[in-house]
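Here is a protein:
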Amino acid sequence: MADFRKTLETGLGLGLSAASIITASRGRHVAVDPFQSDYDNCGLRNLERLGLAGELEFYADFSHSVLPRLLNEGRSFGFIFIDGNHRFEGQLVDFYYASLLIEQGGMIVLHDTWMRPTTYLVNYIKTNRRDFQHVAQGPRNIAAFRKSGDDRRNWM
């Protein structure tokens, strides 16, 4: 069963989603964002102001570098929020590693579904990843998937 106190997000931005995730999960949150300094560390400063910085494990690096390291360390998560690189290949790589890091019953949520690359990824997951169940959401700007089995696709 997924431990929703262990959370991960790609992209930190202003820290709004991180603040919500930390507050809701009451656990340790990992955030990956190589461009936080471009935002004058606004997300990090906002979390500090809210008293949530102590629950944050922050990586000022690209997700395609950090996520494989977390996997190699044997880390796993109950909730993963993908909101970093919005190019299709960046999101696909983030989803690929998220699918390996997420626990059974855990949730992967994609943000900015109005963007074409995100729409492509949502369609890819729905079509190809039977180990993830699409969970309908009220907000139209996100897509949520629950890890509901093992990836049993033929590797050929």
Remarks:
- The longest helix spans residues 88-101.
- The mean pLDDT is 96.
- The CA atoms of residues 129 and 151 lie 7 Å apart.
- The chain has five helices and seven strands.
